[in-house]
Design a protein that fits this description.
- By secondary structure, the protein is mainly β.
- It has a single domain (6-138), classed as Beta Complex (Metal Binding Protein, Guanine Nucleotide Exchange Factor, Chain A), CATH 2.170.150.
- It is built from one helix and twelve strands; from the N terminus they run E-E-E-H-E-E-E-E-E-E-E-E-E.
- Strands 6-7-8-9-4-3-10 form a seven-stranded mixed β-sheet. The chain has a three-stranded antiparallel β-sheet with strand order 1-2-5, with no helix packed on it. Strands 11-12 form a two-stranded antiparallel sheet.
- Strand 8 (83-88) and strand 9 (94-98) form a beta hairpin.
- The longest helix is centred in the N-terminal third of the chain and has 7 residues, at 33-39.
- The radius of gyration is 15 Å and the shape is globular.
Length: 145
């Protein structure tokens, strides 16, 4: 059996570096209001990996943590402000990583849009990926929703 493929990433300034061993659990575009505000973008593309496939290589002391809800928190670089990771009590053995911070040609195909019914009204999305929403953000959305 071959070992998982490695990928690496950093924050904008390079103070925080991390590695990820593939495969990922998922790759999704998140449209929730917290992701939009945290990143200043219409949506954010996340990958999820088991914690055992994730390592902070340098700069752990530069990471700051923000408790963004009663059950989850986001980590970002205290030097440049890059949003890097999201963790949640409901899946403690998993780390969600902002795909844009991964270097090189690492590009899992996004599988869906989540929290679709919370999306920015000014966003136009023209792909055929599933649109998921509802309370969990991952329930099927009615056509036209």
């Amino acid at each position: 059996m071959s070992s998982p493929t490695p990928a690496s990433g950093t924050c904008l300034c390079g103070a925080v570096a991390f590695s990820v061993r593939l495969p990922t659990l998922f790759c999704v575009h998140c449209h929730c209001s917290m992701c939009r505000r945290s990143h200043g973008a219409a949506f954010v593309t996340w990958i999820g990996v088991p914690r055992s496939q994730f390592d902070i290589v340098q700069g752990e002391d530069a990471l700051l943590r923000y408790d963004s809800s009663e059950h989850g928190w986001r980590s970002f670089c205290g030097r440049c402000g890059s949003s890097l990771f999201c963790e949640n009590q409901s899946h403690p053995d998993q780390v969600d990583i902002v795909l844009a911070n991964i270097r090189g040609s690492f590009a899992p195909a996004p599988q869906a849009h989540i929290f679709w019914d919370d999306r920015a009204s000014w966003t136009v999305v023209a792909d055929d990926l599933p649109r998921l929403g509802g309370k969990s953000g991952t329930e099927p959305v009615e056509e036209g929703g």
